[in-house]
Amino acid sequence: MNITDLMEGLSHSLQINKVPDSWAAKAYFSKKSLAEWFTDLLLRVTQLQEWTEDAETPPVLWIAGLFNPMSYLTAIMQVTARAKNLPLDDICLRTDIKNTFETKDFPNFAEEGAYVNGFFLEGAGWECGRGEEQGYLVDMVLKDLHPALPVMHVLAIRRSERKTVGIYECPVYVTSGRGPTYVFTSDLQMESEESDVNKWILAGCALLMSPE
């Protein structure tokens, strides 16, 4: 049997622990090595299997495991717009960061919006709040390049109700490649209303769904 260029390229990628180009072309954005990518793929399949078996969304959805996470967020806005009889153009997303990383702390679905997880910070760290107080952005810890963010509560609200003071409008990307992997903008609380948002802009602070 003759070895084609495609087969040779596939073999070479497998040998150097790289996701073959032919696979990457049909998959989701990722900069992971082949071994990490395969582990991530199995986790995605497991979530979809559990979702299908129960025929309902998990109370806390690993949104980073979706092929198109923005479609899920758009659905949240559409459901809210229909329920409150509001035009979709008047709706935006609000993100509240909870003070726990444990999905088991949320056994029930959110009354509005949805609980999601699977976010990692780049260019900053996160200080959890106490009780019902929200946490806030802090300087990143040395060598902790991508600290995990606690469970996020995503809601759809009217644009006029959106809080902007003391808030950093943080871009969310799938990978550290940023650019075309942009998903949406998350409103992250800063330490105080007097905090300078330029600090986080200059630090390149962003949320990633799939850091390598």
Give me a quick take on this structure.
The protein is an alpha+beta fold. The protein contains five helices and ten strands.
Strands in their spatial order, largest beta sheet: 1-3-7-2
Shape: globular
Mean pLDDT: 93
Largest sheet: 4 strands, mixed
- Bin the strand percentage: 15-25%
Named CATH topology of the largest domain: Hypothetical upf0131 protein ytfp
Q: What is the ordering of alpha helices and beta strands?
A: HHHEHEEEEEEEEHE
| Structural class label | alpha+beta
Q: What are the segments in which pLDDT stays under 50 over at least 5 consecutive residues? A: none
Gross CATH architecture of the largest domain: Roll
Count of extended strands: 10
Q: Give the N-terminus to C-terminus distance in angstroms.
A: 37 Å
Number of helices: 5
Mind sketching the topology for me?
Elements lengths: L4 H11 L5 H4 L9 H21 L5 E3 L6 H15 L7 E7 L16 E4 L2 E3 L2 E3 L8 E3 L13 E7 L8 E7 L8 E8 L8 H5 L3 E3 L4
Parallel strand pairs: 1-3, 8-10
Antiparallel strand pairs: 2-7, 3-7, 4-10, 5-6, 8-9
